[in-house]
From TrEMBL:
Domain Acyltransferase MbtK/IucB-like conserved intervals: 18-65
UniProt source species: Streptomyces pakalii
Pfam families hit by this protein: Acetyltransf_8 (PF13523)
Lineage: Bacteria, Bacillati, Actinomycetota, Actinomycetes, Kitasatosporales
Role, per record: Acyltransferase required for the direct transfer of medium- to long-chain fatty acyl moieties from a carrier protein (MbtL) on to the epsilon-amino group of lysine residue in the mycobactin core.
Protein name, as recorded: Lysine N-acyltransferase MbtK
Pathway listed: Siderophore biosynthesis; mycobactin biosynthesis
Listed GO MF terms: acyltransferase activity
Keywords: Acyltransferase, Transferase
Length: 189
């Protein structure tokens, strides 16, 4: 799923992705990452300037990218894609060729839709695997984040081991293209 590619879920709607523009999107993303439901993003006390600075830094980084995910054309989630040998997991695990790291965050809402977050992570994984060079997605959720661990398992992630990062204890987890296809029934829509 690139800027023009779409993923569709009959029950949920259409997902698209565009690059995050720090100057345009900082206010939107600030509301998401500072919301209490985003506690695991560790940005709860971040100012708008802090968020814009963070995403300007990501935009300038050669091994880290951020994207806004759209649901039926409206901003609904955040994706970060990174090279785990250079960012986040550098020196903390045994990288394999074709590894890509990922973070995702669904925007807070007062009207949740059943199955929406699972549809988002499925769309995020399809977006990552749309790149033929990606063979495996690696993630490092907080060991206490049981909600995202359940979502990760639902799309094929396997916990490799616990790792200590400076900001948290994390569950290093990985999902190959084949594991994703098996978990989603070959239907990445």
């Amino acid at each position: 799923m690139t800027r023009t590619d779409k993923q569709h879920s009959a029950a949920i709607g259409t997902f698209t992705v565009r690059p995050l523009d720090p100057a345009v999107d900082a206010e939107l993303v600030h509301g998401w990452v500072t919301h209490p439901k985003a506690a695991f993003w560790l940005m709860g006390d971040a100012s708008l300037a802090d968020v814009e600075r963070e995403y300007r830094s990501i935009a300038a980084h050669p091994h880290h990218e951020a994207f806004i995910g759209l649901h039926d054309g409206e901003p609904a989630f955040l994706i970060e894609r990174y090279d785990p040998t250079e960012v986040e997991l550098k020196g903390l695990y045994e990288a394999e060729p074709g590894d890509v790291g990922m973070h995702f965050l669904v925007a807070p809402t007062d009207t949740p839709v059943h199955g929406f977050t699972r549809a988002v992570i499925t769309a995020v994984m399809a977006f990552l695997f749309a790149d033929p060079s990606v063979r495996r997605v690696v993630v490092e959720p907080d060991v206490t984040n049981s909600a995202v661990q359940a979502l990760n398992k639902a799309v094929g992630f396997e916990v490799l081991r616990e790792i200590a990062k400076p900001e948290k204890d994390a569950l290093l987890s990985a999902c190959t293209r084949e594991q994703f296809e098996a978990a989603t029934g070959g239907n990445d829509r």
